[in-house]
User: Fold these one by one.
Assistant:
Number 1:
Amino acid sequence: MQILPLTQIGEVGPGDDLAALMIAALDAEGIVPAAGDVLVVTQKIVSKAEGRAVDLATILPGARAIELAAITRKHPPLIELVLRESTDVLRAVPHVLITRHRTGHVMANAGIDRSNIGPDGADLALLLPEDADVSAEALGARLSDHYGCPIAIVVSDSFGRPWRYGVVNVAIGASGLPALLDRRGLPDRDGRPLEVTQIAVGDMIATAAGLVMGEGGEGIPAAVVRGYSWSAPARPAAALVRALAEDLFR
Amino acid sequence: MQILPLTQIGEVGPGDDLAALMIAALDAEGIVPAAGDVLVVTQKIVSKAEGRAVDLATILPGARAIELAAITRKHPPLIELVLRESTDVLRAVPHVLITRHRTGHVMANAGIDRSNIGPDGADLALLLPEDADVSAEALGARLSDHYGCPIAIVVSDSFGRPWRYGVVNVAIGASGLPALLDRRGLPDRDGRPLEVTQIAVGDMIATAAGLVMGEGGEGIPAAVVRGYSWSAPARPAAALVRALAEDLFR
């Protein structure tokens, strides 16, 4: 398996044609995508292209945002945006605000990012895409059409974990591959039912790509994962979101 | 970056020389490890080589194990082993038992596995290595000596996540690389302090390797991750364990 970084992507702005940018970046690396290749793109460039930046100066924080901003010591307009993007607040302590995003993904700050917005964007916050599975689907359709073969897409974001330090990349959007692979009912080598029955393939591919993309200042917002094979039907990243009724750690 | 599966590893048994098995498997694939290569091995073969299999028929469950077995509908002797290997029970509901392993890692069943033990091992349970960081250190020393260059090691296991379906591989042991990479204080491209400050490199490498190793019945218990570069000092997988005082979801 290979992971190929796409280094030739400049600053992405609202309204940019992400598929055209990706095709140009693939060209620049001399990569010709083939069936089974997965293009991983960071949430950040998808959000930027979709115009999801919000000027924090235009956001008036409500009472709940002001209260949570005091607890978390974060910027009240930012917290207001987090609340608008969330259905539930799981934890709020100094410097930490963990919510359930309206798409169901549990993460810090509803995935809203204030870093790396661009030199002129001091007061901008970048929201997640409206629906990253839809973004992945659209990007995949364009690329599959262009290259004449199915290209899978993963939209990645970096998440913390409750009992482990450090972030890892996970999938918040996916198309063309089984983001969640269900192996329930299959026997293991000794004929016993498998104890591990579902594999978070979308997350694993996002994480693998994250190793070459880096975090923060590196500016490598996309990579191709080549040589991972699957036969199960495609499932979006929404399949990775654990049902609320099964949340033991709310 | 490349991820190369080691397919030529047979059944591993107690007392086997894991370093010798890895060298033979690398030879069989024609892989000559070089500086910067990371050898990822599953917890399962490390535990088997270290003789961590326990005959469940010899385990007498105590009152607490019997109580938790009734709640979780699991085998009482298995639960007794889980409790002996754990410092805390985080959640116990039907079919789910999440504990804090004595090494600090929070996971299902204290990482104890009943599948894939071998055709004659119907009543065997496989514990985690005594200390997977120590296992990684020992294996790394042997391989580095053999190949005449530093070889990093990651011992991987598959973990569930509280808010996401599916397992991913993480690092429970590491040597020769920064399992946790600290970037606090570094500015992003726009000169702002990075919001994401710690990266779980050990977990990410384990996850990437997991894509080629598969889960359950595939029998690919090791892989080489080639082309990931780092300059930070090595830190063991213990660095990935969040301090108890910072656990918001106990």
Number 2:
Amino acid sequence: MTAERLARFRATLDRRQPDLRVLLDGVHKPHNVSAILRTCDAVGVYQAHAVWPGDRLAVHRQTSAGAGQWVRMRTHEAVGPAVSSLQGEGLQVYAAHLSERAVDFRSVDYTRPCAVLMGAELWGVSQAGAAAADAHISIPMAGLVASLNVSVAAAVILFEAQRQRAAAGLYDTPRLDPETYHQTLFEWLHP
Amino acid sequence: MTAERLARFRATLDRRQPDLRVLLDGVHKPHNVSAILRTCDAVGVYQAHAVWPGDRLAVHRQTSAGAGQWVRMRTHEAVGPAVSSLQGEGLQVYAAHLSERAVDFRSVDYTRPCAVLMGAELWGVSQAGAAAADAHISIPMAGLVASLNVSVAAAVILFEAQRQRAAAGLYDTPRLDPETYHQTLFEWLHP
Ligand SMILES: C[S@@+](CC[C@H](N)C(=O)[O-])C[C@H]1O[C@@H](n2cnc3c(N)ncnc32)[C@H](O)[C@@H]1O
Ligand SMILES: C[S@@+](CC[C@H](N)C(=O)[O-])C[C@H]1O[C@@H](n2cnc3c(N)ncnc32)[C@H](O)[C@@H]1O
């Protein structure tokens, strides 16, 4: 049992992608946050980020339906500093945003270090988030409804990232630095 | 205003795909059904199917968040007859189901007439549904959580179908038969 758990944890950490992130810009419905974290876990996102007031984290922890414990979550007070901090780490920030500037989501390179910025259910990506992002990406819509559910949009983009990264061999050898790897393994084994 | 609406309706009907369907096998949470119908509308699904007891349709109509009125929904009492009826129309039925028989979801051909069968939130695809399907397809999971949210899984598969169909030119000329096209246009203009 413990050996099996250890093997599963190692197999997961072997595929975690420290340079593929998600930044949630005011996404607040628990079922959406939960679905997004499940998707993050599935495509190997090691760390997600969220902009929300301090007291919302409690909600997230209760409702992440199992995935919350496997995807590290960092919260930020405002989107501007959050985007700057990701850019400071060398990541491109792609805002999922149906703006005039938007390019097709399949045309950008997700094998380079990047973060996908998702907007809130009602008002979408904030003005500050849209302004700070390096690019805007959109998923084509062939129907009458203007936008997709946010957890659906995040998944469509993240599985395109997964496809590109798998093709580039980025899941074939461990990509976390050894210290983070072992620290996380320790935390998962001793929660 | 009316001319603009007419143009939008026509542009949508020009891209509707009568031979790309979704069959929901006991999916019952309104927010999931709603998110799936939004995705159906976005990728041009003309008709969706659902297996559920007669009295559930009311829930669906209230909660489809706008997309329900643009995607025709047919309900079925049981999954076996629903699958047979789709197969009788010449469609392949691909069950999204993490079984031993499952092949990677990107390896199947969505340009041929087909329906994607999605399982319920808790128990997944029913035994009868899994047995009746022509193939099982799975989305790769690189993490610790066993499955994706059902509306997320449906979207990842449907946007792969959209990608294949766009590459094959299936959105370039109208694919609905003229009678269905005009009948639907009439219904949308005079709800
Ligand atoms: C329900 S949408 C927000 C809609 C909002 N009314 C707007 O105009 O932006 C929630 C988020 O999902 C993402 N999203 C939804 N549909 C999308 C699409 N077709 N392309 C890119 N992102 C999308 C965006 O991040 C968006 O901010
Ligand atoms: C939450 S899952 C059901 C989980 C259920 N415990 C089971 O074992 O099947 C709901 C539905 O989403 C779809 N789904 C979720 N993750 C999937 C994946 N990785 N591949 C294919 N389909 C998936 C399937 O149709 C599944 O029946």
